[in-house]
Amino acid sequence: MTYVVTDACIACKYTDCVEVCPVDCFYEGENFLAIKPDECIDCGVCEPECPVEAIKPDTEDPDGKWTELNAKYAEQWPNITKAKPALPEADAMADVENKLETHFSEKPGEGD
């Protein structure tokens, strides 16, 4: 099992989770975070830190869509280990559903 970042993170990008990760397996996109599955040690400390509940065990990703997306972009984006302010629109976007098709950006973030 590994943890994955899901739709709720898109256009919010709260980074509370990255500082508690003991293996620094988060990678930063312009408006989304990804967990590198090969680095995640399944400790689960990141999951309760996410204010929008975007982090889930991969067992809650039955079709593997989020696991694949996390793996793909964790290979392309820079590592992030320190918390940053959430995106300006985070509070407004927190309750929006199905953001992958309409709001997801493939562009990398800045990383640390």
From TrEMBL:
GO MF annotations in UniProt: 3 iron, 4 sulfur cluster binding; 4 iron, 4 sulfur cluster binding; electron transfer activity; metal ion binding
Domain annotation 4Fe-4S ferredoxin-type: ranges: 1-30, 31-60
Cofactors (names): [4Fe-4S] cluster; [3Fe-4S] cluster
Keywords for this protein: 3Fe-4S, 4Fe-4S, Electron transport, Iron, Iron-sulfur, Metal-binding, Repeat, Transport
UniProt function note: Ferredoxins are iron-sulfur proteins that transfer electrons in a wide variety of metabolic reactions.
Protein name per Swiss-Prot or TrEMBL: Ferredoxin
